[in-house]
Amino acid sequence: MTSRISLPSLAIAIGAGLASALLFASLVGGSMFALPLFVLSALPLGIVAFGWGTRLGVLAAVTATLLVAFALGLPAAIALVLAVALPMPLACHLLGLARPADPAAPVATPVEWYPTGRVLMVLAFVIIGGTVVGGLAIGFDPIETSREVAAAARGMVAGSATSSAEDVSQIEPLVHATVRLMPVFFPASWLMVTVLDLWLAAKVVARSGRLARPAEDLAQVAVPAWAGVAFAASLALAFLDGPIGLVASVIAGALFAVHFLVGMGVLHVVTRGADMRILLLATAYGLVLLFSIPAAAIALVGLLDAHFAFRKRRPPPPAAP
Fold first, then answer.
1. Can you say how many angstroms the Cα of residue 257 is from the centroid of all Cα atoms in its chain?
2. Which of 2, 53, 79, 133 has the most CB atoms less than 10 A away?
3. Membrane-crossing residues (predicted)?
4. What are the pLDDT digits (tens) for 214-260?
5. Are 271 and 317 in contact (CB under 8 A)?
6. Where are the domains of the chain?
7. Helix or strand holding residue 264 (H, E)
8. pTM (2 d.p.)
9. Which DSSP symbol is given to 213?
10. Taking CA 176 as the corner, what is the angle to CA 172 and CA 179, rounded to the nearest 5 degrees?
11. For residues 75 and 69, is the Cβ–Cβ distance under 8 A?
């Protein structure tokens, strides 16, 4: 990684900002095929921030924000800042921080990098803050939103030739439950999307030889034990009505994603050396994609790992030749 600024690096940063803006705006068309592009909207910012330094990563983020504001308006630009332009450069900056492992020793001592688990926690709280601010900006109200969505859904069902009165009566509870879960689902899903973009950006930059941070065993990433306490407390408060319940739902969603990622790391570590490891991991990923209960079980494993240290019972992977 280098923070040296030159005309080519400026052009790269501006180009990355343009790419990020285009990917973010791809969802405007409403096509499901645009969703993967939208998910990768933070990737160009991560590549620049990892490979050319934080300042150019911020420049790319500012470029993307200005372009989206010009093309789609201020609300879309604010959404870009909260979801993409702020979390990605900040996470890349923290991952690029390093210090000598022994400050009193000579310069050639080993380097201690900023812990990845702390970066994950910072990222979670940035996304929590962004979700809360975004919800306040749009005036999110679960009751009113449920009423509007249910009315639209009833109209669609009533217009169907195969609909019945029973179908119409079942809509409102389902809509209410779905809307109530939105404050949980959005921060959880967007945290995992951001982590995916971070990982992809690091892989791309590493292939070019510009990534300063050495490769690490991501399956060993851990978070502090207080994160589990915060998750349990926010989950309990999430059942309350009103603003407290909504904010607690956002916190619970983001911390659920944190412990889910840790739990997946535990699963990767404990299956090392198993004869059917690929099949076991593929089954776990498939179940998580299809059902919510396996994801909750894996998050529980991640939460308990801070207290029972499941991964310390397994030897580390062999060093790369």
1. 8
2. 53
3. 6-25, 32-52, 58-86, 119-140, 184-206, 218-240, 246-267, 279-304
4. 989 999 999 999 999 999 999 999 998 888 999 999 999 999 999 99
5. no
6. 1-96
7. helix 243-270
8. 0.88
9. S
10. 135
11. no
